[in-house]
Fold these 2 entries.
Entry 1:
Amino acid sequence: MHLTIVSSLDSQCREAATERLGWTHANSVVVLHDLLDGSLVLRRVYRNGRLFERGTTVLEHGCLSCTVRLDVVPTAERLAACGFDHVVLGLPPGVAAGMAVAELRSGLSRPAVIDNAVLALDPAELDDHIWDRHTLFESGFTSMPQDERTSGEFLVGEFGHVDTVMTYPGLGAVLTGDPREGSPQWVSGVELLGELAPHATVAAAADDFRPGCFDPAEAAARNRPGVVRVPLAETEGSFRTVLHRAARPLHPGRFREALPRLAVGMHWMRGRLWIASAPTKRIAVQGIGPRIWLESTGNWMADSTEAAPMGEGLRGEVGADVDAFLDWHPSHGDRGTVLAITGRSDDVDAAEIRELLEGCQLTEAEMAMDADAWDDPLELSDAL
């Protein structure tokens, strides 16, 4: 059985993408799931563009993960048993593709190949989504009041997991008759896509699409907190991504003061920090639009039992942190600050970012101080 998973915030984009994907294989079927008020799951199944099954299920505890586990997975299982070779799963708006992949792998009783994880969106709305302060519930994308993710957080998470982004005019464009394709907002959104998801294939309605490029190991690597992936080459345009590295630990107080200046105008900040007040901890930083947060992801590889003596190399299992191998240094191992900031070209100044981060690094005198001397630890729970 072959599966294609489609996530989205916009039901119009999702349905356009799933309809197209339903024709990529012979003997395909398309399933659309929606979680409505009252824990009601609406399920619609299409074959060759025609609706042939419609059903509802009331969940005891209605939530997005329960919808996937208790209805999406059993539906995929049932359709495979009916002899369909390819099932396109249009997830409820706000359901992450990564969660669906995990539930399908653990819940299906028969082998399945995931051909693609696809995000469907209207690029003309991407910039507004990134900067929206409202939660998915407040914006009407989900029926779950406890869902505190913003649209920007959802989309950036999906960019890391999916291999393909399909672009279609959203529901708002259809209702107003707005021909968005080719508009300045559309072109700008597609350009921003290239910075936020440089690995992904971007397929518009008229573009060719070749199924079969989902790599679960690579998707997991991209989504590890603190990992940085940037476009291979910088191009002249409305958006840019600046990458900077700092080899010495950062002074916690100076970094706290610099963080708001680093965040001004950024669409997406991501990376890992080496902070002097927590020198053995690999601290991930992420900022999406108006929100920034830090989290400890455990010890650096150099401070773990997997590090080889004298920093001569790494002993680890397959699937260990690739960045640790690539960034390994003879004296400080994988420790170090790596920060990438994406934003409008007029707002992201590479020289200013470099100056700010260089100024946060410990001086020679501070490097000689004991770690216990730092009385200004950086609060990992702080968010801007």
Entry 2:
Amino acid sequence: MHFSVVSSLDSQCREAAAAKLGRTHRDSAVVLHDLLHGGIVLRRVFRNGEIVEQVQTLLEHGCLSCTIRLDVVPTAERLAASGHDHAVLGLPPGVSVDMAVTELKRSLEGDAIIDNAVVAIDPSGLEDHIWDKHTLYESGFTAMPEDDRTSGEFLIGELGLVDTVMVHAGLGAELTQSRPELSKAWAQGLDLLGQLAPHAAVPARDDDFRPGCYDGAEALARVRRGSVRVPLEEETGSFRTVLHKVERPLHPRRFQEALPKLAEGCHWMRGRLWIASAAKVRIAVQGIGPRVWLESTGEWLADSGARHGDAETALDWHPSFGDRGTVLAVTGRGDDVDASEIRALLDGCALSEAEMQLDFAGLDDPFGLESTITNPKRRTP
């Protein structure tokens, strides 16, 4: 059975995207799930724009993963058994397309063919989401108190996974009868999308939509911790992305001092670090709005004896250092992201020739990452 999967933080955007996707196939079923307080799952099924089923189910353990496993997947199985060839799954707000796709492929008796993975957003609110420090629970997007992701973390993750971004006025605009698509914030949100998700299609009309373009392996490669993908165009409207690479290891204290300056005003920072005090550890760095964290991702391939693990590693392979090295990309407003300053800060963190000769002796590990090589952890500097 074929599926199109839609994630979102906004129910209005999700429903508009699901309805549009339902029109791309004949006799599609459109299924919308919502996880309410108290572990109640609301399921609505539509055909040809008309609701044919509305059911509330109480889950013993009401969580996002249980909603997928105990209601979304069984509903998909039932639709497949009834002869439907295509279903649009509108996921509960805060549920990642990756969670749904993984469970569909693992649990369905027949083949689950993913035609499209879509995130639905109101671009006029994208920048605010990235800078919002509140968790998804605090903002009312999920009913799970332990969900400590921010809206920016969720959306950046989804933008990496999906093949299509569908834009629509959000629920707030619907309630106030406003027209955000005419606003400056909407136009700037589209510009920002060009930097955050250059791989994704952003259809303006139904005939712009590209059905069947989901590539699961490529999606996972884009969101691999420490991976760096950048747009072909460094600047899009008000926003820009700066990419810089440093061959030598970084001095831990100099990098610790430089990190706040690198992150200041940055919408999205991502990459991998070679820090001298934890020289064998491949460290992923990510900053989304007000949050920045470092995370051990295990040994460098060059230290494990392997070579050229993936295409990105093969392209960056150094004749002396192998895959070791620092690669960092920073995306933000052009006024806040100074390419020369970022490159100077990173270059200033690199070990000098004299420091290289010391074989990293006497360097402390301010991030505590050397000990995490067998037990990767997220650490907020």
